[in-house]
Amino acid sequence: GKSADIVHLGSTLQYIDDWRKLLTDLATQFQPDFFVLSDLLVGDMPSFVTAQNYYGQTIPARFINVGEFLDFWAEKMPYRLVYRSLYQPLSSDDYFSQSGLPETHRIKKPCNLVFAKI
């Protein structure tokens, strides 16, 4: 039977090597009515991986092309996009500096996406 009404992932997909497998596995295991994905590094730029300095460690951070991300949901998942907005952190500071990235690979703002089961 169903195990969850909502699966929420916030500020995490950029750290998952195989995000497609994670989302597919979560859908299979929990069969949620909704996926709520917040603070996604998904936008209008090529998909790529960069290095993020995080509390003295360097970790990979993935930026995902929005078309590639939405195509995955449309083609592989029994969900449809029902809500999309820009992520607005509580402080107005740019919490994820992109100054070291080429302009072609910068994201305007992280986003929030909600997908509902079809």
Write a concise synopsis of the structure shown.
With 118 residues, this protein is an alpha/beta fold. The protein contains two helices and seven strands, in the order E-H-E-E-E-E-H-E-E. The longest helix is centred in the N-terminal third of the chain and has 12 residues.
How would you explain this protein's 3D organization?
- The structure is a single chain.
- With 118 residues, the protein is α/β, with parallel strands linked by helices.
- It is built from 2 helices and 7 strands.
- The radius of gyration is 15 Å and the shape is globular.
- The protein starts with 5 loop residues before the first strand and ends with a strand.
- The model has no long low-confidence stretch (mean pLDDT 92).
Question: Whole-Å distance between the termini?
Answer: 17 Å
Task: Compute the average pLDDT.
Answer: 92
Structural class: alpha/beta
* Major sheet details: 4 strands, mixed
Give the helices and strands as they follow along the chain.
EHEEEEHEE
Taking all Cα atoms into account, the compactness measure Rg is 15 Å
Q: What is the count of β-strands?
A: 7
> Portion of residues in helices?
10-25%
Morphology call:
globular
